[in-house]
Amino acid sequence: MAGATTDSGSWVRLYHPSPAPKARVVCFPHAGGSASFFHPVSSALRPDIEVLAIQYPGRQDRRAEEPLTDISTLADRVFDALRPHLVREPRPAFFGHSMGATVAFEVAVRMRREGLAPTVLVASGRRAPSRRRSDDVHLRDDSGLVAEIRKLSGTDARLLDDEEMLRAILPAVRADYRAIERYVGAPDAVVDCPVEVFVGDTDEQVTLEEADAWRGHTSGAFAVHVFQGGHFYLTARAAETIDRLATTVRAHA
Q1: pLDDT per position as a tens digit, 98-139
Q2: Residue 166: predicted pLDDT
Q3: Residues paired with 25 in a beta bridge
Q4: CB within 8 A of 185, min separation 6: which ones?
Q5: In CA terms, which of 30, 102, 121, 146 is 20 to 30 Å from 197?
């Protein structure tokens, strides 16, 4: 597996390199998302905070690659690709939204086994690994999958109205949903870093109880930040979210 995952450049995107950042944060996209989702975040936080964005296979310039359908495998490969960045100073924080929060957590679990840890894990729009629901979005037909994406309001409607674009993006979206809906987190899995949870107050994907359950997965400090909005509160309230993220990353740098 190592031979397939050592190309850090295909997995890790650095849109705005900083010669001397005071902090770093690695951003993990949601299901169907791509590294470019975090380009505005990178632009807003530079040069003090350098943003690294993860690009999963099966989308954008990696569209020819087979998307992964297992969170464990995805986390293994992201961890391997991130290795050169995890031992550099300043040590990075992690930010993941929705599925990305779970991937970030699993990467942090792998780091713990090797005596490493992000400075802080920010889990956005995702219930704790120990909280499961019986979701079946990945089993729906294409129209059902598109309906779910529209409901969450996280994808540009123009893409969903373009048949050619839909054919291009749906395989990766379905693979991501399959991965996250089949994920079974270890109830006793813990990371050795503070965890802060970001959640929208009307997010149907995460209750406040499911968000608060993240406290059982850290040996460090814990906090929950509630924003106005649904599952993609972070696009509707981008400036507020970025400001809160910057404050959190700086506080733990």
Answers
A1: 999 999 999 999 999 999 999 999 999 999 999 988 788 877
A2: 72
A3: 51, 93
A4: 102, 105, 128, 129, 130, 132
A5: 146
